[in-house]
Design brief:
Elements: E1 7-12, H1 18-29, E2 34-40, H2 45-56, E3 62-70, H3 71-75, H4 77-80, E4 91-97, E5 115-119, E6 139-143, H5 147-156, E7 162-166, H6 171-175, E8 184-185, E9 191-196, H7 204-208, E10 210-211, E11 217-222, H8 236-250, E12 256-260, H9 266-273, E13 281-285, H10 289-292, H11 306-312, E14 329-333
Parallel strand pairs: 1-2, 2-3, 3-4, 4-5, 5-6, 6-7, 7-9, 8-10, 9-11, 11-12, 12-13, 13-14
Helix pairs in contact: 8-9
Length: about 350
């Protein structure tokens, strides 16, 4: 084993010699911080409880915890023993399977917790299962939630500076729009990342219900490792009015925009940039070459055209005519084909 320091344990049921490996690691790592990743289910409840019991005795060393488990394990007294004994825990990633109407407060008293990630598509309500120290959170990541649930989380974490939404779906909004809240004002949020679901890629539900006056960084991306977004599933032009309305309502000073793995036309991107003259950083990453196979320009267009580059080119005779006069960083990833010479000949 290498030098003492931060160690990672990746545990799963059924591994031979689990007890020996677990105790050996804990003995050799001594008082070093622990980055723990646990995937525990009830197919072998005794193994799960044993692992929890051993690691819970060292909960004061936990710095990061990923827990993928069924909800019953959260209620077990073995895990409950960590309540109030998580002084170093800064990052918590929860993926809980199953439903509970009881409040579970084992993570409520975590004085160092800054980043919380939650993955649960069927969570009925943020307050129905697990309580967290919402007011101290700096970063909140929500994966596979209904957008209505995500909005409730926004409200619960008013001090969050960074929020990421990954593949949240809007079907509940279309079925029951009257259940959605009024426009929410999140005064402290500075960074918003939206990873669009390939099945339900609408953005309007997120942008229509928020006013973010402190927002400075915005990222919109297509989902990784799943169905590719084409113009049949997602139209950036149809989202343009919603985004512009959101920006005007928020009156935010956006300095960074990132667009990744989206079917974008050059005129759609340029139309949005005309409303973002304060940008200092612009990132546009296309789909990679393998993903693009079988799709033509009519289904998966590229925004990186001669017209796009001409619009960003500084005109030294009339520099104020530049589309983004404050731009300092430009990050472009063109993977479709070898870069066509005409793009860079302007």
């Amino acid at each position: 084993m290498d030098k003492m320091g931060v160690r990672r344990i990746w545990l799963s049921e059924g591994y031979g010699c689990l007890k020996a490996m677990l105790h050996l690691h804990l003995e050799l790592s001594r008082n070093s911080p622990l980055y723990v990743s646990l995937m525990l289910f009830d197919s072998d409840h005794s193994v799960a409880l044993y692992v929890l019991k051993v690691l819970s005795a060292h909960s004061s060393r936990w710095t990061s915890l990923y827990l993928c488990s069924d909800v019953e394990l959260l209620k077990d007294p073995v895990l409950s023993s960590v309540r109030g004994n998580l002084p170093l825990l800064r990052q918590l990633d929860i993926d809980i399977r199953g439903d509970s109407r009881e409040s579970i407060d084992i993570f409520q008293y975590t004085p160092a917790l800054e980043k919380l990630s939650i993955e649960d598509f069927d969570l009925p309500s943020p307050t129905a299962m697990i309580t967290f120290p919402w007011n101290q959170l700096n970063t909140l990541v929500l994966r596979y939630c209904y957008t209505s649930v995500a909005l409730q989380y926004f409200d619960l974490a008013p001090q969050a500076r960074h929020i990421a939404l990954a593949r949240c779906q809007n079907s509940d909004y279309r079925e029951r729009p009257e259940t959605y809240p009024q426009v929410m004002h999140c005064h402290n949020l500075q960074s918003l990342s939206i990873n669009i679901d390939d099945v339900d890629p609408e953005l309007l539900v997120v942008f229509n219900f928020h006013t973010l006056p402190s927002l400075s960084r915005l990222k919109i991306s297509g989902a990784n490792n799943c169905g590719i977004l084409t113009l049949e599933e997602f139209s950036f032009a149809s989202e343009h009015g919603t985004i512009v309305s959101f920006l005007a309502r928020s009156r935010c000073h956006l300095v960074s925009l990132c667009l990744e793995r989206l079917p974008l036309r050059d005129n759609e991107v340029l139309a949005l940039l005309q409303n973002l003259l304060s940008l200092t950083e612009l990132t546009i990453h296309e789909h990679n070459r393998e993903e693009c196979k079988g799709y033509g320009q009519e289904m998966l267009p590229s925004p990186l055209t001669s017209n796009f580059f001409k619009s960003l080119t500084v005109n030294y005779t009339t520099p104020r005519s530049t589309l983004l006069p404050h731009l300092k960083e430009l990050d472009l990833l063109y993977k479709r084909n070898p870069s066509p010479p005409q793009i860079f000949s302007t």
